[in-house]
């Protein structure tokens, strides 16, 4: 996707881009944000909006690495992050709620902004997710003529229509639906029915046959995750169990150290 997006982005064009994870879209919009910055001006000039704190942190790290020798200052705007009275960083990466707070409380000057990036935009602007109004409010507080880059791994039609209202005259760069899976990933489906014992036995056989360095196993219940972790640990595997062990709303999901090796 970099081959198609970078020439347009570096010329100041708006983009609605779709590509699979791992295709390099983060590097593409990170370079666009960096090149939009006038390093002599100590004001926000590029902003990247992400649906989660974790994604914002990841994108921040990519921009930080790519701009390591530029002298460009960055700020991570997420809940429980660094508190500042006034944002003077030239590139700001953050979540919708925090960025809206900075703008409405006049802690970030919007008039100097040149580039707005929405990463995983389908999540943020999907009205069912509840972030659509925040994205619209952020957009309304920014200059009308700034460059907007929207990137996503998927792009349902109803979300695309909403995106068009935010980004007029955008270049649409899309990967066909059948090409969204990376060719470097092998997908295998094994039908073992609903018997949990058969699933566990099949998984045990699979790990016994494959030379696996690291892997992630997703389980649909907390009890199932605990039981599977116990079984695999008994078979000699080093296991870390990550699940929601706290009551709802009391904090983030935790790594259960009883199963961490």
From TrEMBL:
Stored Gene3D superfamilies: P-loop containing nucleotide triphosphate hydrolases
Record's keyword terms, sorted: ATP-binding, Helicase, Hydrolase, Nucleotide-binding
An example Gene Ontology molecular-function term: nucleic acid binding
Domain of life: Eukaryota
Helicase ATP-binding domain residues: 6-173
A Pfam family assignment: DEAD
UniProt-listed PANTHER family: ATP-DEPENDENT RNA HELICASE DBP3
Protein name in UniProt: Helicase ATP-binding domain-containing protein
